[in-house]
Amino acid sequence: MAAFLEVQNLVKSFGTNTVVKGVNFAFEKGEFISLLGPSGCGKTTILRMIAGFERPTSGSIRVDGEEITHLKPNQRKLGMVFQAYALFPNLTVGDNIAFGLKIAGMPADQRRARVEEMLKLIGLPGFEKRFPYEMSGGQQQRVALARAIAPKPRLLLLDEPLSALDAKIRVSLREEIRAIQQDLGITTVFVTHDQEEAMSISDRIVVMNAGNLDQTGSPHEIYNRPSTRFVATFVGQLNTLPEASFGPNRAIRPELISLTPRPETDTTLTGTISDVGFLGSVVRLRVDVAGTPISIDTFNSHALTPPQRGDTVTLHLAAKDVLTLGA
Amino acid sequence: MKSDKFWAWLVFILGGAYFIVPLAATFEFSLRMRRGTYSFDAYASVFADPYFASSFTYSVVVGLFTIIVGILVVVPAVYFVRLRMPWLRPFMEFVTLLPLVIPALVLVYGYIRLYGSSSLIPFTGSVLGTDILLTCAYVTLALPYMYRAVDNGMRTIDIGTLTEAAQIAGANQLQIIGQIILPNILVAILSGAFLTFAIVIGEFTIASLLNRPAFGPYLVGIGTNRAYEPAALAIISFIITWGAMGMINVLGRFAPRTSARTD
């Protein structure tokens, strides 16, 4: 199957500053793709080039086999949701959702039906007469989502759509976005700096670092088989293991170390607990192993008395879980 | 505490008197046309003068055209400078302040030299041409006010993101300005429009030197030839101007709310 969204050798420079340094990726129809990376890594610039707001210095972008690199944004048939909602303040919710349909010349009765369908989809039926300022941030962002998908775009672009919302809404809305995306089967590109967000909703993640693409893969691959040191440290927690006993550049995830032996564990380390962090379902311990700090995540349990600072403990881990970090 | 309030009130009353006493005196004088008693005879005389109605109507029409041309020039200019060429803003600020620095007299002499009946573009050769020239001059005079009103209006909305949101939905530049930007800054534009109107209604120099029958020259003519009517006219134009200012305040309450709540 041919790729639906294909980016080739994409480069973007602002003056002498190159922010996207030759990025390639190809994804299939219906996939939910996250562009993940710290701020300034070029992820937003890539999204804006796909949308047409920035002109690539070189390289090409194809959607469904069509070269769109040099099309204007209003010719690309894409939908986009912005961080700051960007609803039109002078229009009602209904008119906001119908805006793209009206521009496309859809007759009024069909528009009304589509708006109603969209409002039902985002769980805000009966809101068409409201104005954006009468709604909460979460509601506004759902309307922005409805506005983006109402004209049935080929691609849905999400530019950190959850960053302006508070933590609880953020989690519920991301689940909602994922559900709607799977329901409609719409190919989606989601930009975020939040690795947990990317892991929880993506089919595939593109990890960006300083303008380069470091790794592309499923959340499972990215987390368990990070291809670069940057990916390993940016996604999830990581312990660097003492060089004396493991060799250079060896690391392990905190949840793969336990205080009691498990069938697969074959290696032990001894250390002193320097800190105990109670996170609810998880207890995070910091253990000092001959000067190397190691974090361990264990599940909270009613039966167990939590370890104390200063306790000497034995850490059990499996050699196969140890990651070797590349450059 | 108490003395603080005393001084505050004193300053307030002195300041108020500075504005109100001359106004009250003018009003009182305008009522004294009939000997020995107060009357509105001066006002009746003003309204009975056919030149009052014709010159006022002329200025209102020129004012409306000035507003339309001003909006068509300023709104797209401010929009594109804010969106695409923000480095041009200091230059724009400077240029739009020039009409306040350059006397209207200099402006109109320049116009007459450049567009006089013996020039290559003889605007003043016909009545319509002169009216067009007058309108253009007024657009220039009102530029500092119109520019600032529109610029303030655009500051309150995120024109960059709104433009992008409309673009990705398929809208072209004209649809964006007409359907998204204009309606959102309508109140700001109206306040600029009322300021423009207030300026055009009272303007004398340019209208007089271009020899157009505007309200300003009429006011001055009456002022030099009559005793009580000028006072009545002053009160009338004062009411018109303040009516325009009042409308700005009233319309301000209908400004679109663009709060971005994050809950």
Task: Describe the structure using short key phrases.
heterodimer; A: 327 residues; alpha+beta; Rossmann fold; OB fold (Dihydrolipoamide Acetyltransferase, E2P); 2 domains; four-stranded antiparallel β-sheet; 9 helices; B: 263 residues; mainly alpha; MetI-like fold; 12 helices; 78% helix; 0% strand; disordered C terminus
Chain-wise SSE layout:
The complex is a heterodimer of chains A (327) and B (263).
Chain A: E1 5-14, E2 17-27, E3 32-36, H1 43-51, E4 58-63, E5 66-67, E6 78-81, H2 93-103, H3 108-121, H4 137-149, E7 155-159, H5 167-184, E8 188-192, H6 195-201, E9 204-209, E10 212-217, H7 219-224, H8 229-234, E11 239-240, H9 243-246, E12 250-252, E13 267-278, E14 282-289, E15 292-299, E16 312-317, E17 323-324
Parallel strand pairs in A: 3-8, 3-9, 6-7, 7-8
Antiparallel strand pairs in A: 1-2, 1-4, 4-5, 9-10, 11-12, 12-17, 13-14, 13-16, 14-15
Helix pairs in contact in A: 2-3, 2-4, 3-4
Chain B: H1 2-30, H2 41-48, H3 50-83, H4 89-101, H5 104-115, H6 127-155, H7 159-168, H8 173-184, H9 186-202, H10 205-209, H11 215-225, H12 229-252
Helix pairs in contact in B: 1-12, 2-12, 3-6, 3-9, 4-6, 6-9, 7-8, 9-12, 11-12
The CATH class label of chain B is Mainly Alpha
Mean pLDDT of chain B: 86
Provide the number of structural domains of chain A: 2
Q: Which percent band covers the strand fraction of chain B?
A: under 5%
Strand content of chain A: 25-35%
Name the pair of protein chains with the most residues at their interface, and give those residue counts: A-B, 39 and 25 residues
Oligomer: heterodimer
Secondary structure tally: strands of chain B: 0
What would CATH call the homologous superfamily of the largest domain in chain A? P-loop containing nucleotide triphosphate hydrolases
Q: Can you summarize the main beta sheet of chain A?
A: 6 strands, mixed
- Euclidean distance between termini CA atoms of chain A: 33 Å
Write down the Rg of chain A.
24 Å
CATH class of the largest domain in chain A reads Alpha Beta
Structural classification of chain B: mainly alpha
Note poorly predicted spans of chain A: none
CATH architecture descriptor of the largest domain in chain A: 3-Layer(aba) Sandwich
How many strands, which pairing sense, and closed or not: the largest β-sheet of chain B?
A: none
The spatial strand order of the largest sheet of chain A comes to 6-7-8-3-9-10
What name goes with the CATH superfamily of chain B? MetI-like
